[in-house]
Amino acid sequence: MGRVTQRRKVHKFVLDGSPQALEFPVRFREDVLAVEEPLEIRIGSLSFSVTMRTPGNDFDLVAGFLVSEGVIWEPDQLVSLRFCAGEDEDGVQTFNVVEAQLRPDVERPDTGRNVFTSSSCGICGTESIEAVHKSSHFSPAADPLTVPVETLASLPERLREAQAVFDVTGGVHAAGLFRIAADGSAELLCLREDVGRHNAVDKVVGWALRERMLPLSGTVLQVSGRASFELVQKAALAGIPVLAAVSAPSSLAAELAEASGMTLAGFSRGTSLNVYTGRHRVSVPVSAVR
Questions:
Q1: Do 30 and 144 share a structural domain?
Q2: Which long-range contacts (CB under 8 A, 24 or more apart) does 287-290 make?
Q3: Backbone angles phi, psi at 183, to 5 degrees
Q4: Count of structural domains, the chain
Q5: What is the DSSP letter of 45?
Q6: Cα atoms found within 13 Å of the Cα of residue 35, Cβ hemisphere only
Q7: Burial of 268 (0-12, 13-18, 19+ CB in 10 A)
Q8: Distance between CA atoms of 265 and 279, rounded to whole angstroms?
Q9: What is the pLDDT of residues 13-52, one digit of tens each?
Q10: How confident is the model at residue 108 (pLDDT cuts 50, 70, 90)?
């Protein structure tokens, strides 16, 4: 998988009480780690942000990040993306700097802020829900999508089955974009993995922008981990009506989802899930209605 994963020798301690464990309590083996490296995002020649990410689909990541920041929302506003020169101590190209060229009429953000984003934090200081609404060009509130509850509950397993990097490392998050058909079935359109859950979402949104699919009406974004404010923010800015997570949402995530007219589901575990906002989009079999 190239720069996505890295092998490292480890000492494995076996404490299961077996005769082999008592005789050889420490085993030497190789483990596979998910790579984490910085990516500097430039707008023109000026540095805009640095984020920690798993290399791969970097152009999608940059495009999605610019959508999430409210800088662009149409594919034609992004003229080009390219890797800039950057070498490690051995003189090898690192591909850790991407330059985005915007259409001349696109308002440039404040590139003097030099935002650093860790792989665990996506917004790091976004002021308020009101600020999100001001920068949003798509509203999921009027999206007429309905999703059968059994389809929604099945998406975490669908997501997990498609996670190639997680299979070998166990150390990345995933975001999967599903289109819901008229018969209630779900088609996986795009899946991205990254050490940062917000990066995985940005890669999905960036892919959609470059494929000229925004706004993402009629879709569900399924994510691993929890549903945080920044993930709801990114989904809302892309026009996604339903966000589902395998773990809990935060209180602010639920508030933003409600204010944006989104459906937010959490603790989606295959046989059960909680719907925190937008219950009207989740349909249940007639036999299940009491």
A1: no
A2: 288/149
A3: -85, 5
A4: 2
A5: T
A6: 15
A7: buried
A8: 9
A9: 877 777 666 666 666 788 999 999 999 999 998 999 999 9
A10: confident
Cis peptide bond N-terminal to 19, omega within 30 = no
Tokens coding 79: 């003229």
Nearest 10 degrees: CA dihedral of 131, 134, 135, 137? 150
- Give the alpha-carbon dihedral of 164, 165, 166, 170, to 10 degrees: 150
In a domain, 94, yes or no: no
pTM for this one? 0.88
Residue pair 192/55 in contact by the 8 Å Cβ criterion: no
**Residue numbers of the domain that contains 211:** 140-288
Q: Note the Cα 253 to chain centre separation in Å.
A: 15
Q: b/e map of 132-167 (b: 16 or more CB within 10 Å)?
A: beebbebebeebebebbbebbbbbbebbbeebebbe
Here the tokens at position 100 are 């985005």
Tokens of 85: 């020169």
Using CB atoms within 10 A of its CB, is residue 176 exposed (0-12), middle (13-18) or buried (19+)? buried
Residues assigned a catalytic role:
121
